[in-house]
Design goal:
By secondary structure, the chain is an alpha+beta fold. The protein has one domain: Collagenase (Catalytic Domain), CATH 3.40.390.30. About 50% of the residues lie in helices and about 15% in strands. α2 packs across α3 and α3 packs across α4. The longest helix is centred in the C-terminal third of the chain and has 24 residues. The protein is globular.
């Protein structure tokens, strides 16, 4: 979050559930009656609000596991990627077009590599 300009005291709420749960959220809040991998709900005033809570990220563990298998990753790696993806949405990134999706994916992967490097130093 710091890499995207959030103050150090910024908080984030993360919830992980199944496809049925995320489908209900997707239907209720976005009008899409289908499961999805990740949803991001910004706090009022976000992105980069003065509020201490950036927003909420909801992840489907079922979809994450399915996508991980399709992409040759571990499920935990897919959840990490989805979490970063959600945070990017909360900080203003969009992925409505193919070029936006590619740029957002490159940024998410770069952030995960940065975290891996920093953890390796510890």
């Amino acid at each position: 979050m710091a890499a995207e300009g959030c103050p150090a005291e910024t908080e984030l709420s993360v919830a992980i559930g199944d496809d049925q749960w995320i489908q209900e959220l997707n239907r209720r809040y976005l009008g899409k009656d289908a499961p999805t991998d990740v949803l991001a709900f910004p706090q009022e005033g976000a992105p980069h609000s003065q509020e201490s809570l950036l927003g909420d990220v909801a992840i489907s563990e079922e979809t994450a596991a399915r996508q991980a298998g399709e992409r040759g990753r571990q499920a935990a790696e897919e959840v990490e990627l989805l979490l970063v993806h959600g945070i990017l949405h909360l900080t203003g990134w969009r992925d409505e077009t193919p070029s936006q999706r590619r740029a957002m994916m490159r940024r998410a992967e770069a952030l995960l590599r940065q975290v891996d490097r920093e953890m390796a130093k510890e």
